[in-house]
Design goal:
Layout lengths: L8 E6 L22 E7 L3 E2 L5 E2 L8 E4 L5 E5 L2 E7 L3 E5 L1
Antiparallel strand pairs: 1-2, 1-7, 2-5, 3-4, 5-8, 6-7
Length: 95
């Protein structure tokens, strides 16, 4: 199964948070925070303007992006959790 986002939406595979602290302490599942970074897997064609033109998205496939904690909609693709978010919900690109 493959998903192609529509309009200005972006499909992201979240990067899981570390299960261990820098000092070596393992964290239980309940202590982990929801991921806020991920890799762009697929893009929509861009937002359609009233005059029929499309605005190209600022991110590209393979970019690592930062998004807000509760952004987007979670979907499961091939037993892996992904997020579909609007480009406007992205906070930045990690360089």
């Amino acid at each position: 199964m493959s998903v192609k986002p529509l309009e200005d939406r972006v499909l992201i595979r979240p990067i899981e948070a570390e299960s261990r602290t820098e000092s070596g302490i393992y964290l239980p599942e309940s202590a982990k925070e929801k991921p806020m970074q991920g890799k762009v897997v697929a893009l929509g064609p861009g937002k359609l303007l009233d005059n029929g033109e499309r605005i190209k998205l600022a991110v590209k496939k393979g970019d690592t992006v930062v998004y807000s904690k509760y952004a987007g909609t979670e979907v499961e693709i091939k037993n892996q959790t992904h997020l579909i978010v609007r480009e406007s919900e992205l906070l930045g690109v990690v360089e």
